[in-house]
Amino acid sequence: MTHPRDDRAQALAEELKQRFPDAESHWAASPGPADVTVLALPYDAALQVARSAGAALAGQVLVDICNPINFSTMDGRVTPLDSSAAEEIQQVVGTDVKVVKAFNTTFAGLLTTGEGHDVPLDVLIAGDDSAAKDKIAELVRSGAMRPLDVGPLRRARELEAMGFLHIAIQEPLQLNWHSSIKILP
Ligand SMILES: NC(=O)c1ccc[n+]([C@@H]2O[C@H](COP(=O)([O-])OP(=O)(O)OC[C@H]3O[C@@H](n4cnc5c(N)ncnc54)[C@H](OP(=O)(O)O)[C@@H]3O)[C@@H](O)[C@H]2O)c1
Fold it and tell me: Which of 10, 37, 41, 104 maximizes ligand 1 atoms within 8 Å of its Cβ, making it the mutation to test the pocket?
């Protein structure tokens, strides 16, 4: 018997194939393991899945999108001050996997359109491997958004603090998850 999560994942994969047939022919033309994996999970699950995936992730770009918030207090993050979720994940997967922090400062609702307030969303990206960041930047551009390379993986500390702040101000400023972080020159 399969796990209900696997059944839902399979159903989603089928739905995506129907909605994006061009992507399906692209997938069919490049069989084999994915070269990018996105951990779209809460932090504790992301860490657990990264740990258990082990060698299956070798050679891949692993995108960490999480905001490791302390959901008991909603008043801070659960990671050590001198680290970040992305760095903790990098530690458990080892150097064969290139971890990239991205998408944690953009809300899901706006990501589906790629824009907020009629301007392309900024997707802030941090990582230690340039080729891995380039790959994610290309993915971001293909969604009509603007990738911004903010530096090495340790910049994830600031990105996660930014993500936390962005979440924390939703209710007081009545933003209703429709706000975005835009870097203007
Ligand atoms: N939503 C946003 O706008 C947004 C924006 C930026 C970053 N993020 C980050 O993206 C991540 C996902 O956010 P979300 O809003 O999609 O959260 P969510 O609605 O809570 O979804 C979490 C998903 O993770 C699955 N999951 C939980 N524990 C798991 C485990 N141990 N093994 C496998 N799957 C597990 C859940 O499956 P079940 O339903 O079966 O439990 C669910 O499908 C979070 O880290 C969040 O901080 C979200």
Answer: 41
